[in-house]
Design brief:
homodimer; 207 residues; mainly alpha; 75% helix; DNA-binding
Amino acid sequence: MTEIARRLTRKGQATRDRIVVAAARLMLEHGVARTTIEDIQAAAGVSPSQLYHYFPGKDALVTAVIDHQTTQVLDVHQDCLQRLDTIDSLGRWRDVMVNILTEMQCVGGCPLGSLASDLSESDPVARTQLAAAFAGWQELIRQGLADMQQRGELAADADPGELAVAMLAAVQGGLLLSQVSRDPAPLRIAVDTMIDHLHALTRPAVP
Amino acid sequence: MTEIARRLTRKGQATRDRIVVAAARLMLEHGVARTTIEDIQAAAGVSPSQLYHYFPGKDALVTAVIDHQTTQVLDVHQDCLQRLDTIDSLGRWRDVMVNILTEMQCVGGCPLGSLASDLSESDPVARTQLAAAFAGWQELIRQGLADMQQRGELAADADPGELAVAMLAAVQGGLLLSQVSRDPAPLRIAVDTMIDHLHALTRPAVP
DNA sequence: ACGAAATTGGAGTATCAACTCCAAAATCCG
DNA sequence: CGGATTTTGGAGTTGATACTCCAATTTCGT
């Protein structure tokens, strides 16, 4: 990868990016297996030889798509989660997720979750890669909750690690139910319920 | 279906069932797209003509698999959820789910959830079918919680409908995270956290 | 500008999976 | 038992898809 990346022209890099972005979009909207190389070629406006010049095969392209989506998702959530000033900021985080889903008309669900479900049983390497992505996401949430706890906005005996797992599960489950029902409500309700739970664990601010 | 089912010999019914069960298993363990008709033939011990005698094509077989898994899942959960005597019975429900997942070594995740993720963006009919399956599951949970509420084991101002959505999301999200990490812990933690939330909504029994 | 290296175009191939067809065998019902 | 019906076996066809190959062109460092 370093060898190849080193010898990559600006134009080449642009072409490679175009392929990855197109592949990521198509795989989200139609699933990995049902996205053909030909579809990706058409969407990215490249010829077969170009695609195979940058990627040895479909597996390698899938790897690149996972990396791309991981970066995209973690970037968005990092912004929202790094400063959970008040418990209300959790509500803004929820709004961001619900808005993105609504803009997509609930198509595709979670960019990482759908890849995980598609690939977990067919590509062990991809599964490991996605497990790491979820671990990173979970850690982002845990960190945010731990910060809140240090500010005294969360009970001292609450476990940010377990709450982060439960929150991420609520997000993933909510996204799946929203995807299958084409209705953003399940995601909103699932996340709101977890936020309610955090409220219940919130200490009164005054000592 | 009625026409065909009417003219179905005992042996024919057995063969059909064998095909559906084999297909359901393979699709859970490898995904729908990566399960070939040939694989199903081999697993069920039937020839191509037999399979196409009972099903017009792969789509019809997928429909049958969804029906089969829906029945399987709802049957299991009906048993657990129809009598939520105390809040502890929720813990037994969680144990059933965690045990099933552990026996599968976290392979496949949820029989309905993985189908939903696989098919939502490629087969609108299947998506609708799965949406109905989840609605039924959700209703089972809602009913159980509503019963608890009537017995006074849940606060009167709690909303069993929304809690059911959140609980089902926790189950689905937990199963996905467990599947991808090959560790039953996320499912356990996600469901336990929702149970904790219900605890917090539980009125003291004594007035 | 110039040569080496990266990039691109498009025709072609090999494989695999879904599906078909027809005749033989087993099964059911009166 | 006997005839109609259902069930089964297996070879063959069609279409799609991942992937290859090589020559032409563009880009980059010096």
